[in-house]
Every structure is written in structure tokens, then in C-alpha cells.
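Appendix B, record 7
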Amino acid sequence: MLNQHKILRVFQLITYLQEKPNKAVGQLATFLETTERTVYRYLDLLRECGFDLHKDANQRFYIEKEDGDGIHFSNEEAQFLKELVLSAGKHSKLKDVVLSKIYTGSELSLVAGHLIHAKNGKIIERLTRAMMNKEQVTLKKYQSINTETISDRVVEPFGFTENYQTVMAFEPASKKNKTYNIDRIGSVEFSAQSFQFDSQHEQQVTDVFGFAYAGQKFPVQLEMSMKEYLLLKDQYPLIAPFVKYMSGKDKYVLEVEVNDLRVLEQLIIS
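C-alpha cells (predicted):
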């Protein structure tokens, strides 16, 4: 089964191949930031999925864009793809990108429950495009927990954390690498300004709550009832590997190091 990253790449490749001019294998490798050998695997996958992949006299590949808006699925195909994506990435915001494209390319009725986070899908898609083009973007109306403000942030995005919960980016104004929660981004606006600080981009290792390392780690041991554990896991699925059930106490215990205690402090207060 395709993992979430491959699903995103397949959709990106389809869209790219539908755009003029036709693409050489080298161009596709650059676009996907991978090897030519891997590109051929993706092309084989597209053929297996039934896409009408063509190659011109100059050995350049393309997919003819049909009337309407590109890919079209029957109701049955769209329903199958929807179930596949939901099962493969239940807690990943990347699923919203794929679901929105499935709905757009089919006659399947829009289900409100699956589109609550459609905005997040578009945000991830635009951030991915900015990373590929090495272009600065503005995160519009970003809601900051640190400063308790809502403001626009000009950043250079360069990666996502696990499950696409946050985006890693360099902020020129503060000259710092930061992580931004996808849920708290209003929208993403392209700037047409190329990256200016590539050499200063540094991967941020976030904790199970999405906070980046800020010079100090805090060991945590938290006992929870089943209800408390399930509620916390729904909001922060990355805690799951660090939770053990203690049958003697009938409690779930979270043992993990975190970069920030705010989430736990809020739990204690509430």
C-alpha cells in the first residue's frame, strides 16, 4: 500500500505531467527530488493505475489533460480511494489533500465531515510547491501560542514533521528556524521571492506534541484514565508508542521527553 508521502508524490506527478511542455526524465527527477531510476518506478505505477502515459519523439513524457478538470473517477472508484486514504492515514493531515482531489475528480457527493480540514490540505499542497520552487511564502493569520497573537509570517518552508502536523521553516524576520502548526495557519500566499537563507535551514526535531527543541528537554510521567488517554491520543496521536497500560492501577502511563510543558500544564489546569 502506498504510504502518505508516495500518495502526495503521485498526485504531484500527475499534475506536472499534464502541464506543458512535455517532461524529460531528468526534469521529473528534479521535480520529485529523487533519482531517475525512482522516476521510472513512478511512471510504471501510473501505467498500472490506468493513466494514459505518452512519450514523444524526444523521449519526453506527458499525460493528456482531458476536458473538465483532469482526473475523473467513477463513484465506485472514488469511494474505494476515499476508504483507502482514510485507512492509510487516519491521523495525517495529508489525507485532506488527497480527499479533496478525489472529490473534485468524481461525482461523489461531498461529505462535510471529511472536508472540515480541507483548508489544511490546500495549505500542505501550497507549502510543498513552495519547497520545490524554493520560494518564500506568507503564512496568513498565523495563530501563535507563544505570543498569543494572530499575524502574517514570511517564511522559507523546507520540510514537514511526522504526520504533517507542522511545517519546518526559516523566518527571516527573527533569523530563526521554527515549526508552525498546520491547524493554526489561515492560508498560504506565494511571494515570487526565492529563498535567501538556504544555508541557515536546519531540521527541527519536534516532540510528541509538535514543539521544537528550544535548548531544554523535560521528562514526563503522566497517569491517565482510559478516557483521558483516548482524548489525548486523538489530539496528539504520536504519544501512542510512549504509553503503557498498568493493569494493577487500571491506568495508562505516558513516559516521554518533551520540549515544552504547555500541553501538560493545560491538562492539569483543566
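Remarks on this record: The longest strand covers residues 149-160. The chain has a mean pLDDT of 78.
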